[in-house]
Specification:
- With 216 residues, the protein is of the alpha/beta class.
- It has a single domain, classed as TIM Barrel (Alpha-Beta Barrel), CATH 3.20.20.
- Helix content is 43%, strand content 16%.
- It has helices spanning 20-29, 44-61, 71-76, 91-95, 111-120, 144-154, 170-175, 185-188, 193-215; strands spanning 6-9, 34-37, 64-68, 81-84, 103-108, 124-127, 160-162, 180-183.
- The radius of gyration is 16 Å and the shape is globular.
Length: 216
């Protein structure tokens, strides 16, 4: 079963000059459970080269590798899965091209979208943005913790919350039903990516333990 606890999304724009591959390598070193390659500007050729390099890093470390949007790049690089938005190719069409066990995650901003995605066979959901975020130019308005809580009561597949998540609000996100947190600036922007990952990973695990303790 895939562990989505700390899900790191690469971003070269806010990384202080570090590449996707360098970000991935440092995030893996810091204990990231999932690495997602996200780039809206690279050519297909460039992105495939980057994806294959990250695939090597994550495979050696036993870390899940996801490609954002680009199903073709995900399949060609032997990634573990793809993450799709509401305006990307439909989940059922994507699934028809994928090998068994291939992970498909879907971005959702409402309970209705979450229920529909689960019914169509999504492996995990990316609720958000939970809080306002500047990391994504195309981000929708923040949906908040109440929507996350509502999604948790309606769907059973993993929820990987995204959007403005940092060490100060991470406990509230996990406490509202998220199985993991997807982060960009909280990990990619600091000078020490590995250190930022280690800190967040410890906080995720501690929050998860508190949650499981309250349910026992």
């Amino acid at each position: 079963m895939t562990d989505y606890g700390l899900y790191v999304i690469t971003d070269q724009v806010i990384s202080g000059g570090r590449s996707h591959v360098q970000i991935a390598a440092q995030a893996v070193l810091g204990g990231a459970d999932v690495i997602q390659l996200r780039d809206k500007h690279m050519s297909g050729k460039e992105m495939l080269e980057v994806a294959m390099a990250i695939r090597d890093i994550t495979r050696d470390a036993g870390v899940t590798f996801i490609v954002n949007d680009r199903l073709d790049i995900a399949l060609l690089s032997a990634a573990d899965g793809v993450h799709l938005g509401q305006d990307d190719i439909p989940l059922d069409a994507a699934r028809s091209l994928c090998p068994p066990g291939f992970i498909i995650g879907i971005s959702v901003g409402s309970v209705e979208e979450a229920v529909r995605a689960e019914q169509m066979g999504a492996d995990y959901l990316g609720p958000g943005p939970i809080f306002p975020t500047g990391s994504k130019d195309d981000a929708a308005p923040a949906c908040g913790l109440e929507v996350l809580k509502a999604m948790r009561s309606y769907v059973s597949i993993p929820l990987v919350a995204i959007g403005g998540i940092k060490r100060e609000n991470l406990d509230a996100v996990i406490g509202s039903g998220a199985d993991g947190v997807a982060v960009i600036s909280a990990v990619v922007a600091p000078p020490d990516i590995a250190g930022a990952c280690r800190d967040l990973k410890e906080r995720v695990e501690a929050a998860q333990k508190r949650g499981s303790g309250s349910q026992s």
